[in-house]
Structure formats: structure tokens, C-alpha cells
Design goal:
Order of helices and strands: EEEEEEEEEEEEEEEEEHEEE
Largest sheet: 8 strands, mixed
Strand content: 35-45%
Mean pLDDT: 76
Low-confidence stretches: 15-40, 284-294, 301-309
Distance between the termini: 93 Å
Helix content: under 10%
Radius of gyration: 35 Å
Number of strands: 20
């Protein structure tokens, strides 16, 4: 696919409570797509009363982006060509310019270093925001961002390269149209357990991820909250409270019968093996009857009385 436009992106932090340090050292910022991205702008910051902006890209200098972004040359992948464009329709040709994919059925991977290294996110609110437009009606493709550790080799960027955060829309068929929010924690990629449906039209949409210092998060699309909650509830950061014992086995004398005889049980002194007599009295507006049952004998009719409404008994 083609005509996927990445317009603007920002990454930042804001000082607040205490958030575990999950983005460490110097981080690289990348865009990866399997089809065509039309335009994108990016913003990455840690928000506070004095927010620190770690990355901002709006492609305002046109071809100047090539001095900041590095194209992957990973072996075995056929990467497509990227260019600056405002797309087939726009409001302002200069302000709406973004990075556009131009070829169908290609992989795209470019990365740029943060302007300010992220030493720690502890006690800060992390914000990742970018806008993207799929001008081509696609059935399989993604236009998401990843935050990488400084160990990444930009020219060897590929889909399996370890990352810290992955965020953005991914489309695969008519039913799988979701927004990914994936954190790498202790070497494992943890997927969001809730579903967030991405936009699949041909318009520009703004995606925002907010991770707060109190370990809560929020995902917005076009500045409208689509999902929120607690990190520990919506990702498997914590170990389960109960785990299966790998050494556990069934005892040799195990009995699957749910009821077991009590070896100390004794029969009461007044126990009778005969069925006790009982009288059943059905209720009927026309007929009253009594049935006597006992000693295992078949039921016998003892009384049969019929009455006319308002009349005497017969």
C-alpha cells in the first residue's frame, strides 16, 4: 500500500508522582509501516509545569528531514521510498506536509534520535503524540511509532528490533483494526488487554498516548479519550498471585468420587427402612381428593368429593 502520511509527532514528559523507569538512556524514535504512510508529525515529551520536549518533528523544512532521519538497510527487507508531500487533499500545503510512503507492498522503517536523551521517566508523565492519514483505502498495513533504546543500530532497524514502547494504528483485514499500545518490560513485549479500534477512513487523525506517574494511562484519538485505566490491570506487568506448581501430582490413592463413606458413621436407633406414610392433598376448585401412600403399596383413593359451584356436596 501507499499514500500513508505521517504529519507531526511529539515526545515529552511532565513531573508529577512516581513512574517506574521503563524508558532508559538515549532513545531513538522511528516510524515503521508495512504499507503506505501518507504524512506524519511526531511529538514526544515528559510533561510538567516546565515540560521537557525530547522530540518534535513537523517536516516544515521539506527535504531537511533526510539529515535527521536514517533509512533502514536491514538485509532481507525490500524497503519503499519515502518523500515529503501534503497529500491529495489538504488545508495548508506547507503546514500539512508530512512523510509519505510511495510504493505498495513494501516495508518502511526510518528512525531519528531524540533531541534530548531520556535519562528517566520517574515521577513524570510521558506523552507520545502523532498525526497520520491513510489516503489509500488499505486492508493490511500499519503506521505506528516505536521508542527504541540507544543500543539500536539505525541502519539495521527491523520489525524484531527490541523497543521500549510501540504505539499506533495497525490494520489487518476487516476485523483486526486496532491501536497498539505495547510496553517492553523485563525483556517481554506486553500487549494491552483492552481493545481500541483505530480509524480506518482517509482523513488525518491525531493519536495520543499518556502514561502518568501514578501508573495510570490514557489513549486519545483526535483528543477524545478512547481508553484509560491502570497499568497493572491492563498489562501483565505483575506476576500472577497464584501459579500452578509444576511438581504437583495426584496422590496414588486419589478417589475421583465426590462423595466418600464416613467410616465412623452409624445408623440412628430410631431408623426405619420402611417408607413413611404421607398424605397428599391436591387443591382443585371442582374436586377435592386425598391419596394415602405407605409401606410401598400403590396409591389408593380414600375420598372423592365433587361440588357444584355454590351448591351442596354430593
Amino acid at each position: 500500500g501507499k499514500n500513508l502520511l505521517l504529519k507531526k509527532a511529539v515526545v515529552s514528559t511532565q513531573s508529577t508522582g512516581s513512574l517506574e523507569k521503563f524508558v532508559v538512556d538515549r532513545v531513538l524514535f522511528s516510524v515503521m509501516a508495512k504499507l503506505q504512510i501518507f504524512a506524519i508529525s511526531c511529538l514526544f515529551f515528559l510533561a510538567s509545569s516546565d515540560p521537557t520536549v525530547y522530540f518534535r518533528e513537523d517536516f516544515a523544512d521539506q527535504d531537511g528531514w533526510t539529515s535527521r532521519w536514517v533509512q533502514s538497510e536491514h538485509a532481507g527487507k525490500e524497503f519503499g521510498k519515502l518523500e515529503i508531500s501534503s497529500g491529495e487533499f489538504f488545508h495548508d500545503e506547507v503546514k500539512d506536509a508530512g512523510l509519505k510512503t510511495t510504493e505498495n507492498a513494501r516495508f518502511y522503517g526510518v528512525s531519528a534520535a531524540l533531541s534530548t536523551p531520556v535519562e528517566s521517566t520517574e515521577g513524570k508523565t510521558l506523552v507520545v503524540q502523532f498525526s497520520i492519514k491513510h489516503e489509500q483505502k488499505i486492508d493490511c498495513g500499519g503506521g505506528y511509532l516505536k521508542l527504541f533504546p540507544s543500543s539500536l543500530e539505525p541502519k539495521d532497524l527491523h520489525g524484531e528490533a527490541p523497543y521500549n514502547i510501540m504505539f499506533g494504528p495497525d490494520i489487518c483485514g476487516p476485523s483486526a483494526r486496532r491501536v497498539h499500545v505495547i510496553f517492553n518490560y523485563r525483556g517481554k513485549n506486553l500487549l494491552l488487554k483492552k481493545e481500541i479500534r483505530c480509524k480506518d477512513d482517509e482523513l488525518t487523525h491525531l493519536y495520543t498516548l499518556i502514561v502518568r506517574a501514578d501508573n495510570t494511562y490514557e489513549v486519545r484519538i483526535d483528543n477524545k479519550k478512547e481508553q484509560s485505566g491502570k497499568l497493572e490491570e491492563d498489562w501483565d506487568f505483575l506476576e500472577p498471585k497464584e501459579i500452578a506448581d509444576p511438581d504437583a501430582k495426584q496422590p496414588e490413592n486419589w478417589d475421583d468420587n465426590p462423595f466418600l463413606d464416613d467410616p465412623e458413621a452409624t445408623k440412628p436407633e430410631d431408623w426405619s427402612s420402611q417408607r413413611r406414610s404421607q398424605t397428599l392433598t391436591p387443591r382443585c376448585p371442582k374436586i377435592g381428593m386425598k391419596i394415602w401412600m405407605g409401606n410401598g403399596n400403590p396409591p389408593s383413593l380414600t375420598t372423592l368429593t365433587s361440588r357444584e359451584s355454590g351448591g351442596p356436596s354430593r
